[in-house]
Amino acid sequence: MKKMLGVIQLDHENDLLKELTYFRCVAATPFASRYRLIDFVLSNMVTAQVHEIALFARKKYRSLMDHLGTGQPWDLNRKNGGFFILPPDWNDPTDRSLGDLQHFHNNRDFFMRSQADYVLISGSTHLCTIDYQAVFEQHLQTNADVTVIYYPNYKTNGQNQNKLKLQFNKKGAVQALINDQQNPHLFMNMYIISKKVLLELVDYCISNHKSDLLLDGVFAHLDRLAIHSYAYDGYHAVIDSVESYYKYSMELLQDINYQKLFLQANPIFSKIKDEPPTQYKKGAKVSHSLIANGCVVEGTVKNSILFSGVHVQKGAIVENSIIMQRCTIQQSSQLSHVILDKNIQVTPYQRRKGTIETPFLIAKSQVI
After folding, report:
1. Are residues 119 and 247 both part of a single domain?
2. What confidence score (pLDDT) does residue 47 get?
3. How far is 185 from 166, CA to CA, in rounded Å?
4. Which residues are within 8 A (CB) of 192 and not within 5 positions of it... i.e. 6 or more apart?
5. 20 and 148 inside one domain
6. Domain containing 54 — which CATH number?
7. Is 56 part of any domain?
8. Residue 345: which domain range?
9. CA atoms in the 13 A half-sphere facing the CB of 5
10. What contacts 116, CB < 8 A, 6 or more positions away?
């Protein structure tokens, strides 16, 4: 049986979430009251029987390492294969590699030790419930060197428009990777590649002083590589700005979106936190909200998302907001269209208000 190994590559994920990524990388950003963004790609890989996964991290990965641990929630704490966090600890004085090629070059032994002949490479910002096994089967059937995954019906909606799209020729073959706002074929930063071809491209790029495996390696060789595409048309959200983070978070309060992401055949796993059930005290009013375990609600919560350990005191009002772990909103304070990062204390009688287009965002561990 032919196998894939997985690589979660974080090098190209810029810190576009402002205060949310002051102290963490994008992949570690909390989402949907109990998850982190990396949980989605990691869970999709494991569901597709990819049990040998490497994480290429370069900066601000302490929070991510704490969340992932040994990989036990994803059944990756195993003797054969398992989960490997590979930070940039390189000491080869002869190394001439640049950009993301440094990860592949300096961790070449990871690939050489693996018995898998194919590599699934993905980032963490595209949230979906993709069946990687179906992509792999198509990759094998078409005898492709590379299979790139795209979302065929993307609309910009005024969000971050610096996104790569696939361009096809008249025969439907991949022709280029471009940045065209009118093109709906959004490249999802996911692809399957032969391990042999991958290592050859890494060597080529390094010897020619290139710095980007995808652009300088894969798409610079469209003339000689068999590059095929796979169209994914299920639930999709790309988190690459504060606005998109808020938009897709709040959309999960609609039953249909929540079901598409979390109630499918592919379960989403995450770090287990042993928290008691949420307490709803006398006088609490809660409606149309997503609330994790360990919260205490004495005030009013409307159309909001609360992570574990949040305390909404008596008389406080939280609406259209995202409140992360261990925040306290003290009595008679009012929050509307607000994102609070972890460990924030909102003192009594405070008023904070943003908008749907521009939510009010506060970095972690502050007193306001």
Report:
1. yes
2. 96
3. 5
4. 4, 118, 119, 120, 121, 132, 135, 136, 139, 144, 146, 147
5. yes
6. 3.90.550.10
7. yes
8. 279-362
9. 23
10. 2, 3, 4, 5, 52, 195
Looking at the fold, whether 184 and 233 belong to one and the same domain comes out as yes
Token pair belonging to 5: 């190994």
Pairing outcome for strands 52-56 and 317-319: unpaired
Q: What is the pLDDT of residue 157?
A: 63
Asked if the structure places residue 244 within a domain, the reply is yes
Buried b or exposed e, range 319-328, using 16+ CB within 10 angstroms:
bbbbbbbbbb
Are 345 and 327 in contact by the 8 Å Cβ rule? The answer is: yes
Write down the pLDDT at residue 155: 82
368 in a domain, yes or no? no
SS3 173: coil
Measured between alpha carbons, how far is 254 from 246 in angstroms, rounded to an integer?
14
pLDDT at 67: 95
Q: Is residue 60 part of a domain?
A: yes
Using an 8 Å Cβ cutoff, are 9 and 121 in contact? Answer: yes
Residues 183 and 236 in one domain: yes
Q: Rounded CA gap, 331 and 334, in Å? A: 9
Domain boundary among 234, 262, 290: 262
- 296 and 239 in a common domain: no
352 shares a domain with 224: no
Same domain, 139 and 221: yes
Asked if 316 and 330 count as a contact pair (C-beta separation under 8 A), the reply is yes
Per-10-residue mean pLDDT for the chain, 368 residues long?
A: 92 87 95 97 96 93 93 91 87 85 93 95 96 97 96 76 86 88 93 97 95 94 94 94 96 96 92 92 96 97 98 98 98 97 97 96 95
pLDDT (0 to 100) of residue 311: 98
Distance between CA atoms of 333 and 166, rounded to whole angstroms? 48
Residue whose entry in the numeric block shows the structure tokens 């772990």: 325
* Residue recorded with tokens 């907001």: 321
What CATH number is associated with residue 358? 2.160.10.10
In terms of Cβ atoms closer than 10 Å to its own Cβ (0-12, 13-18, 19+), residue 115 is exposed
* Domain identity same for 289 and 256: no
SS3 at position 163: coil
DSSP-derived 3-state class of residue 118: strand
pLDDT score at 93: 80
